[in-house]
């Protein structure tokens, strides 16, 4: 993927990432009596992909917004002394994987006391983040490690200021599952000025087919905006509604929202069917499993009837 602009010194300033992980996971019951973020995607829990993506983009200070049922997430990113000792003899790759999550970043936790929505979850990060731009990553969307989107978003923030969202063009009949962006001006190849947003519009009312996927680079001005954002869709405080306010605010008050159009590989793990497809796609893409698995899959597919 081509870089849009030269990196600037402000790019290095974004070191904090917030990962909301307090959702109930109702679409995966009964498995999600355990946290849905811990569902294995091949051999790693879903949330580890997201943590690794944030760390790769330079965010070494991670805040996970959890709730009381999510203790196993904290255990996962803890330091596993006994396991590391047991694996120390020879199995270097697996050891490296285990260390990856716990040693390359500082992971912090805060509880969202009530399930009042994504905007409310992000608001819990205010004290930890302070007056800095920060990244938000949603765990239902996995971005292929070969097609990173955060570096492009950081470049766009460095150039234009304000906040940045990742946008994916989806079929019109799917837009009602997402925040949808109304875009007017293309600023640069694959970078658009976002004029307005609407959370989960009906297909016939959607201003575009551009869906907000779960990667945000937010100006800290989002916090006061969220504090005064009333409950929106489904009675929840919506991050999309706060972005909508930011889009109309002046640049010298932290306003402005741009979108980076994402054209890479993305895997949706948010419901059972998408999750199954994501696991199969990822397995086919993996160098260690892909050749054998794809070979088997072709044979299996041939046995399926019409
Ligand atoms: C959330 C956001 C939505 C966004 C989506 C991306 O919705 O509210 O704007 O498009 O994540 O995955 P959720 O999927 O949590 O209902």
Describe the structure.
By secondary structure, this protein is of the alpha/beta class. 33% of the residues lie in helices and 23% in strands. The protein has a five-stranded mixed beta barrel with strand order 8-11-9-10-12. The chain has a two-stranded antiparallel sheet with strand order 2-3. Strands 7-13 form a two-stranded antiparallel sheet. A hairpin with a 2-residue loop joins strand 2 and strand 3. Helix 10 (272-285) packs across helix 11. The two termini are 37 Å apart. The model is unreliable at 1-10 (pLDDT under 50).
List the helices and strands and how they pair.
Blueprint: E1 16-20, E2 40-41, E3 44-45, H1 46-56, E4 61-66, H2 71-76, H3 81-87, H4 92-103, E5 106-111, H5 118-123, H6 126-129, E6 134-137, E7 141-143, H7 150-160, E8 163-169, E9 179-188, E10 191-199, E11 210-218, H8 222-227, H9 239-248, E12 257-261, E13 266-268, H10 272-285, H11 290-303
Parallel strand pairs: 1-4, 1-6, 4-5, 8-12
Antiparallel strand pairs: 2-3, 6-11, 7-13, 8-11, 9-10, 9-11, 10-12
The chain binds 1-O-phosphono-alpha-D-glucopyranose.
1-O-phosphono-alpha-D-glucopyranose binds next to strand 11.
In short:
By secondary structure, this protein is α/β, with parallel strands linked by helices. The chain contains eleven helices and 13 strands.
The count of strands amounts to 13
Uncertain spans: 1-10
**Helix-strand string:** EEEHEHHHEHHEEHEEEEHHEEHH
Helix content: 25-40%
CATH architecture: Alpha-Beta Complex
Q: Measure the end-to-end span.
A: 37 Å
Supply the CATH class: Alpha Beta
Radius of gyration: 20 Å
As for the CATH topology, it is Spore Coat Polysaccharide Biosynthesis Protein SpsA, Chain A
Q: Structural class, from secondary structure content?
A: alpha/beta
What's the overall average pLDDT, rounded? 88
**Biggest beta sheet attributes:** 5 strands, mixed, barrel
Strands side by side in the biggest sheet: 8-11-9-10-12
Beta fraction of the residues? 15-25%
User: What is the CATH superfamily classification?
Assistant: Spore Coat Polysaccharide Biosynthesis Protein SpsA, Chain A
């Amino acid at each position: 993927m081509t870089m849009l602009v030269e990196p600037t010194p402000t790019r290095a300033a974004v070191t904090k990432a917030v990962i909301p992980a307090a959702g109930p996971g109702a679409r995966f019951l009964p498995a999600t009596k355990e946290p849905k973020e811990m569902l294995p995607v091949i051999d790693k829990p879903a949330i580890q992909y997201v943590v690794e993506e944030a760390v790769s983009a330079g965010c070494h200070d991670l805040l996970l917004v959890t709730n009381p049922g999510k203790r196993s997430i904290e255990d996962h990113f803890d330091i596993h002394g006994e396991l590391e000792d047991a694996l120390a003899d020879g199995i270097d790759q697996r050891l490296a994987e285990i260390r990856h999550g716990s040693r390359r970043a500082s992971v912090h936790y805060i509880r969202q006391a009530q399930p009042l929505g994504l905007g409310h979850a992000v608001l819990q990060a205010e004290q930890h983040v302070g007056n800095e731009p920060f990244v938000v990553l949603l765990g239902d969307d996995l971005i292929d490690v070969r097609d990173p989107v955060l570096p492009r978003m950081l470049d766009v923030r460095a150039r234009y200021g304000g906040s940045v969202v990742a946008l994916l063009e989806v079929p019109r009949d799917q837009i009602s599952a997402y925040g949808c962006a109304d875009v007017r001006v293309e600023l640069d190849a694959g970078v658009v000025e976002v004029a307005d947003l609407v959370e989960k519009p009906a297909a016939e009312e959607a201003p575009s087919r551009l869906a907000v996927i779960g990667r945000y680079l937010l100006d800290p001005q989002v916090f006061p905006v969220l504090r005064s954002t009333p409950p929106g869709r489904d009675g929840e405080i919506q991050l999309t509604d706060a972005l909508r306010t930011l889009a109309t605010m002046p640049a010298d008050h932290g306003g402005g929202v741009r979108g980076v159009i994402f054209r890479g590989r993305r895997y949706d793990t948010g419901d059972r069917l998408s999750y199954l497809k994501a696991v199969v796609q990822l397995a086919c893409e993996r160098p260690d499993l892909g050749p054998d698995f794809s070979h088997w899959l072709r044979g299996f597919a041939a046995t399926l009837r019409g």
